[in-house]
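Late entry, written up from scratch paper. The run itself happened at the end of the previous shift, but nothing got recorded in the book at the time, so transcribing now.
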Amino acid sequence: MNKKYELNDFVIMKKPHACKTNEWLITRIGVDIKIKCIYCGREIMMDRLEFERKLKKVIGDKK
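Output as recorded:
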């Protein structure tokens, strides 16, 4: 996947979270990527390959 994402970017994942939203905030980038749900605040970590498979769209920084 050739989409560029950075720390503090908002992203849309393919499947919604249990709270019915699919918008997340990237809070850590490394070998693993940590994302935080915009609606409920739940944070999850996944490896970069899994993240890129599940990523639908990069919204960018909502300033």
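DSSP finds one helix and five strands in the chain.
(Scratch paper discarded after transcription.)
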